[in-house]
Amino acid sequence: MRLAFTKMEGAGNDFVVIDGTSEAFALTTAQIRRLADRHVGVGCDQVLVVEPAAGADVDFRYRIFNADGGEVEQCGNGARCFVKFVHARGLSAKREIRVRTLGGVIVPRLEDDGEVSVDMGPPVVELPLLQELVLENDSLEATILSMGNPHAVQIVADLAAAPVATQGPLLEHHPRFPNRVNAGYAQVRDRHRIALRVWERGAGETLACGTGACAAAVAGILRGLLDSPVAVEARGGTLTVSWAGGDNAVWMKGPAKRVFEGEIEL
User: Fold this and answer.
1) How far apart are CA 84 and CA 79, in angstroms?
2) Which of 119, 136, 148, 177 has its CA 20 to 30 A from that of 252?
3) Is there a catalytic annotation at residue 75?
4) The whole model's pTM is what?
């Protein structure tokens, strides 16, 4: 089969976007893995699928598949690419759309400066704020919360030395998280700025993680280390996260760009 796709990126987090509004999406796990493979496929952190709305309360359905082929609940950087994709394809003329994901409804909005803001909904935080996790011969303290998908956030003194590639996979598969977890490592620069690296479940370390940026900002605010808004510096670019606390929604703002379009034989 020949599959048409659009390659997009948001702060270096890269995606293969597929239009499933006119033809049902039916790729197998093996096909998704090949599509995401950077050697024999297109290459991406996640495959994003645009599907018709299942109800009158939303404009589209948004599905996310990690590079390992597993379907997940949420992807914030992908949400920004999503709204630019549907505009470019003429699927919607709305500047703000409501999109249903496995993690709930999100609301991405095109801004006048060309960037995209996303209402990510309120965070769900597990108490206590610092929880001990035992890893083989080591232990750590992390803030555990959900932004529609699970995150374990650590505050570190030196981000460059953080054990992202070694500890991240162990955290991802920790028995504490039956559906696996995204492991975030944040270094506080000042009260409105952090640097962040994230080991994403099913994708490894990525250049940016939108939900990870939201989770890290929320964790820092709750721990009294940060004030909203927070500039989150990832290796692929900077995102801005705003949160008023409590049950208020977390807002994320950042870039989203089309890289190229093409077809691949699967």
Assistant:
1) 9
2) 177
3) yes
4) 0.92
The helix (H) or strand (E) run that includes residue 138 is strand 138-146
Using an 8 Å Cβ cutoff, are 119 and 106 in contact? yes
Phi and psi at residue 238, in whole multiples of 5°?
-110, 135
Contacts of 173 (CB under 8 A, 6+ apart): 180
Q: Which of 44, 81, 209, 214 is catalytic?
A: 209
In the residue annotation, 81 being an active-site residue is answered as no
Angle, CA 65 vertex, CA 63 and CA 71 arms, to 5°: 80
- In angstroms, the CA 83 to CA 107 distance is 9
Residue 117: how many other CB atoms lie within 10 Å: 20
Contact 65, 79 (CB under 8 A): no
Among all chains, which residue has been given the structure tokens 């460059």? Answer: 160
The answer to whether 138 touches 171, Cβ cutoff 8 Å, is no
In the block, tokens 């490894």 appear at 204
Going residue by residue through the chain (266 aa), what tens digit of pLDDT does each one get?
899 999 999 999 999 999 999 889 999 999 999 999 999 999 999 999 999 998 889 999 999 999 999 999 999 999 999 999 999 999 999 999 999 999 999 999 999 999 999 999 999 999 999 999 999 888 999 999 999 999 999 999 999 999 999 999 999 999 999 999 999 999 999 999 999 999 999 999 999 999 999 999 999 999 999 999 999 999 999 999 999 999 999 999 999 999 999 999 98
